[in-house]
Every structure is written in structure tokens, then in C-alpha cells.
Amino acid sequence: MDPHQLRTFVTVARLGSFSAAAGELGYTQSAVSQQIAALEADLGTSLLVRRPVGPTEAGARLLEHAGPLLLRLDAARADVARLAGAPAARLLLGATPLAVDPALGRALAEVRREYPRVDLAVRVVAQEALPALVATGEVDLALIDGLAAPSDPLPLPDVGPLSTVAVDERPLAVALPAGHPLAGHRGLALADLSAARWLDAPDIAPGAARLRAATAVDGFRPAARYLGTDVRGLLALVAAGHGLVVLPDSAVAGAAGVVAVPVGEPRLVHRTELVHGSLPEGPAAMLARLLDG
């Protein structure tokens, strides 16, 4: 399959329009139609119905394969470019919200002393998007956090030949309003809280599906959603009684109106990993060494 034709097919299916796909891709509508026809001829089946535009059964099946295939092609191109290119004058770090901490700030300061003209940017992104951004070169490396059993790696998607290194593990705590009946406990079993009110904060804290998997207990239904990356805002909602969240204890420390009670069961930690592809010598490679050390 021609990857250009495959990318055009994905775009038409996503937009539901040949003309809109042509505008997005910079082709004429005729060229888009020719590419789709060529792909259908190659595979020997119709992939799109025309009115309204949408995938056939075979087209829907191809779409399941197309995303991972195009991602791996982009990742291969970025990996080769990193090895063949000159040392970068930029450092673009991707990070989940809780991975940006004082240790990272100190490491970045060392990099800037060594490379004073480096173009530095830190991009805060949700966990599920970061591995693909590293693989395709949209960020040079990433710090990703999440729940894990002690010393176990994070369950990250396979998007290419990336290296992962643990850089931090911290105890977990349940963030409770200061007046909560359980606020004085020395430890809590998450399974005992499955029927409690929970806050769904998908870009910061583990969600219901992750908590159910960790405890093998149903429940953890969200009472409210927090669609942001500001931990202070999330904890303000906890303090006001809108729900509970599980966070590293260090993220809760000092928050007004909130108490952190350690998670006793199951045995879990808040783990942060450094994820990167090949790193030619330069600012990104130096940062990786500092964080790994």
C-alpha cells in the first residue's frame, strides 16, 4: 500500500468529504479521487461509499490498521532524521502535569548552563498522547507519570523503538476534604472507597477504569469531571467536597482544606518515566543523562 494513498483515505474517512480532504491535504479533489481509486484497485475492494461519504465494511477494517501503520512510518522517519541530522539547538520536552517538578527544573537549569542558546520549551500533554509525540519527533523526549506496582513499568502503548527509564517513584495518597470521616486514618484500602464520590480528572489523576483494574472491584463512579491540568484547581474541588482523587502525596502536601491519607492497599506507587528515542549528543541527550542519574 502506498502510504500517501493510505493517508488520503484516512483523511477522507475522517472528514466525510473528498473536497474537505483535498483542502486539508493540499490536493485537487480529482487527485484525492484518483488516490482513493488506486488504493481500492490495489486492495481489490471498495473502501468508501460516496453518498454520503463513509467507510465500507472493508474500509472500516482498514481504518483500524491505518492509524498504527502511519504512526510507525512517521516514527521511522523521525528516528532516522534524529540519527542523521546535526545536533539540535532546541530542547522540546513533553511532560504530564505531575511530572513537572523541582528536580526537572534543576536539570533544565544545568542544560541551559551548558547550552545557553538552547531553544527550550516544555509542553504539558496528557499521558496517552506523549509516546506517539516522542516517536514522531514532535517532542525530543518526555516525562510520563502514572500508577504502577513498585518497580513495575508504566503500561505505555507500543509506538516504536523507544527507551523508557524510571526516574522517580513516590507514595500514593487519597486526597480527602479536611472534614472527611476518614481524614484521620493512617492508611486506606482503595477497594473500600469504590462507592465513594470520585472526581474524574483524566489529565492528572488515575480514572475509574485504572482504579477498577488495580483493585479488581467495580465502582469508582465519577461525581464530577475536571478537564484541566492545574493540580491546585483539582484540589480546590476536593476541598469543597466534590469528590476524591488519588495523587502522589507530594502533590497534595500544603493544599488548603485537603488531607492526604496514604494508600495502603493495593501496593501501588506514583511512577515517573523518561521516554525517548535515539538521542544524538546535544541538549536532549544531556537532559536524559541528568534525569537518569
Can you tell me about this structure?
There is one protein chain. Helix content is about 40%, strand content about 25%. The chain is an alpha/beta fold. Strands 3, 4, 5, 6, 7, 10, 11 and 12 form an eight-stranded mixed β-sheet that branches. Helix 7 links the parallel strand 8 (about 200) and strand 9. It is globular and about 70 Å long. The two termini are about 45 Å apart.
**Based on DSSP secondary structure assignment, what is the total number of beta strands?**
12
Instruction: Provide the low-confidence segments as ranges.
Output: none
Overall mean confidence score, pLDDT: 90
H/E series: HHHEEHEHEHEEEEHEHEHEEH
The largest pleated sheet is described as: 8 strands, mixed
Rg (CA only): 23 Å
Helix content: 25-40%
Could you give a short description of this structure?
By secondary structure, the chain is of the alpha/beta class. It has helices spanning 3-15, 18-25, 29-43, 57-84, 102-114, 130-135, 208-215, 231-239, 249-252, 283-292; strands spanning 48-50, 53-55, 90-95, 119-124, 141-148, 163-177, 188-189, 198-200, 222-225, 245-248, 258-265, 269-276. It has ten helices and twelve strands.
